[in-house]
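Standup notes
- HV: blocked on the assembly model, inputs below
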Amino acid sequence: MLGYALDRLLTLVPTLLAASLLVFLFVRLIPGDPAAILLGDAATPEQVAALTRELGLDQPLWKQYFLWLGNILEGDFGTSIFFGKPVLAVIADSAETSILLAVTTMGWIVLIGVPIGILAAVRQGSWIDQATSGLAMLMASVPTFWLGLYFILVFAVGLGWFPSSGFPSITGEGGLLNLRYLVLPSLTLAAPNAALIIRLVRASMLDVSREDHVRTARAKGLHPLRVAIKHIFRNALIAVAGAFGFTFAALVSEAVVTETVFSLPGVGRLVVQSILRRDYPVIQGVILIVVVFYMFVNLLVDLAYARLDPRVSLK
Amino acid sequence: MALLEVRDLGLAIAAGGRLLPVVRGISFAVEENETLGIVGESGCGKSLTALAIMGLLEDTAIRITGGSIRFEGRELLTMAPAERRALMGNRMAIVFQEPMTSLNPVYRVGDQIVEVLRQHRDLSTSEARERTLRLLEMVQVPEPEQRVHSYPHQLSGGQRQRVMIAMAIACDPRLLIADEPTTALDVTVQKEILELLQDLQKRMGSAIVLISHDLGVIAETCDRVAVMYRGTIVEEATAGELFANVAHPYTRGLLASIPPADRDVEWLEAIPGRVPAVDQEIPGCAFHPRCPFVRDLCRTARPEGRDFAPGHSIRCHFPREWRT
Ligand SMILES: Nc1ncnc2c1ncn2[C@@H]1O[C@H](COP(=O)(O)OP(=O)(O)OP(=O)(O)O)[C@@H](O)[C@H]1O
Ligand code: SF4
Ligand SMILES: [Mg+2]
């Protein structure tokens, strides 16, 4: 399995090179001149030209690209035009929020999606099934920003249970208790994804329950719940595992709206603001890291398949 | 008291608010230690009968419309689910028609046998593992120590069916239902599996219901034979009596068409036509559209069951017509 993982990582190299080129070109397509934006309206053309030269933006594109790529290979993602700090440091500042948000969100998705999905499948056709499918429909169709605002209104402003905005680091004052800042955002972000998992778990379980081996399990005299979990769900998990992976990966982009609604200092917001500031190095750095993250999640999903399904061999 | 007594069992498919009868009031009994063969063409309701006895029709489109199934003197159809589960895989067990798909693909075969042992016997995991090894030896799986760790996809069809048999006999069932256990397998393997079943029966003293669409298989293995046609038992006798004294035109057709051993025959050339579709109503004798000896009475009056000879019952207005 380790050998397979290393092989896979090697095949990522050309993909990453292609991705880096696309990212680099894409960022240059955003209209607007970073130097002019940084200096503001009052700047003279001479000042703008001087800054452009200082930032290296007067060089030919291919030169800029190879310079950037060469530095990355040495672990240097460049310097943020806006913050004047190394890009990696800028990203690290917002990474904590994003990682914790993604992890708590995944927690909710599993905690809500899996048991409700199992329940709906086991009680197929009953009022429970209908109620959960209605709930899933609702969760999937309410727009994220609307749900976020609604949560703020009810649980933060109204009931005062949770804070409504910001996220102080868990390393600072308050420690792990600061995670309560993430409760409403993560629930907001989890809702549509949990709805997807509910439906997927239900549908795959119903598929599996028609398979012959489930009849064998029943013929053993096992309790229906044991049949449902150990035999049906365990097989349905093979189909669901992929969805967990892709959901997790997609959270990165879905988080942008949530981070905005809850004023969270996350990566999503960093990207949006960096685009507004034409902070090329930061945009490039973030996107490249996100691409690596996607590929990594993809690899994890494949490894998970192999663990879950003995018929899959890693080759 | 017979070990298993099926009385007037009726099964129907629920489809579009209607109930289409598939098993139309069948009755038979299985004594301790006996092998009963149930034979009939594809679709006549053999598997559904087996599933009804095992209690595996829940969550399907099949409804039990009437009758009774008594096992060891107790009525199964009104039994509490938990009580019934205590019998399933324990006092009664089944081997299915589909060895390739009947094992759970994600668990090692050894663990799947251990599971049924632990369900019904108060065994520690290591005791159950020990017994699993002995069961695999009994069903003649080569290298059981290695095979317990195999996943189903790593085994051949014959080996999977052996594992299914090991699982079925794990708790020493009094009744073993074998639903076409060899239909999906190679001819050579078929023979081995049938011999294995006979051998096991001798050793364990359990009763077997062997379902097949092949009278040849039944002839070699069974004490008594029930011939099914379109959800009805049309002839029943001890194997010796039946083969010496065939009385029903359908059984005669089956006999004439015992397939050459190397072919899996879906329909039988000696009997013209095919089994009519489930939703087709046939007045009179259900076999009359295909019967070479059909007369007017057959088209209107459904034949009742009656004794043709002692211990030999039949459902036909004009049995053994071919003699005259
Ligand atoms: N779950 C189901 N839903 C609807 N119809 C069914 C179902 N199971 C079986 N049937 C139908 O009921 C009839 C009897 O089926 P059954 O499986 O008992 O036949 P069989 O005698 O075992 O045939 P074979 O030799 O092919 O196994 C068939 O016409 C079949 O199509
Ligand atoms: S009752 Fe008539 S049609 Fe039916 S099997 Fe007997 S002879 Fe043939
Ligand atoms: Mg069948």
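- HV (later): unblocked. The mean pLDDT of chain A is 87. The first helix of chain A runs from residue 2 to 29.
- Next: hand off to the docking folks.
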